[in-house]
Amino acid sequence: MSETAPEASGMRWTRWLPLALFGLFAVVVTWGLVHPKDDTVRSRFVGQPLPAFDLPAAADGKPGLVSADFAGKPMLLNVFASWCIPCAAEAPQLTQLAAAGAQINGVAIRDHKEDLAAFLARNGNPYVRIGADNLGKVQLAIGSSGVPETFVIDGKGVIRYQHIGDIRAEDVPMLLGKLKEAGQ
């Protein structure tokens, strides 16, 4: 009879194992709901001056772009490409920002003049200057990981904010606010 007693107690413990595993799962799920993951990408370049660069003109009729162009007043730096679908999606918001007084300079990534001209004709051209970054060196130097991305640059040439992804209608007031903050 003493041999069956340990077997019986072992069986009682294994009966509770599924309930204990479910309880552990419930605790993990609850923790995730109470403390959600922070998906904010924090760039180490925010707060840093723009690196020195000198880009040739990417489009006919628009001058190229040099880092010294970002002096005097806050402005936006938009990293984009004609082959980028989200770049076309954000075009109306860039036009809205320009109409609200934002000065927007662009960096065209790995693009061809003909393709860029067609893109601008189709989607509008809110840019004051557009530099051609055919090797992506400036893109990497400012901490841009893809297209589109938009940076708020203050009047001293310091990156104050980085917006990753396309600008949506709800982002326009926020970006105008960031520009205003950068001017203070």
Set out the fold topology.
Elements: H1 4-34, E1 54-55, E2 65-66, E3 75-80, H2 85-99, E4 104-109, H3 113-123, E5 127-133, H4 137-141, E6 149-153, E7 159-164, H5 172-182
Parallel strand pairs: 3-4, 4-5
Antiparallel strand pairs: 1-2, 3-6, 6-7
TL;DR?
The protein is of the alpha/beta class and 184 residues long. Helices cover 40% and strands 18% of the residues. The protein is elongated and about 80 Å long.
Question: Keyphrases for this structure?
Answer:
alpha/beta; 7 strands; 5 helices; Glutaredoxin; 184 residues
Structure description:
This protein is an alpha/beta fold and 184 residues long. The protein folds into 2 domains: 1-37; 54-182, 3-Layer(aba) Sandwich (Glutaredoxin). It has helices at residues 4-34, 85-99, 113-123, 137-141, 172-182; strands at 54-55, 65-66, 75-80, 104-109, 127-133, 149-153, 159-164. The longest helix has 31 residues, at 4-34. The model has no long low-confidence stretch (mean pLDDT 90).
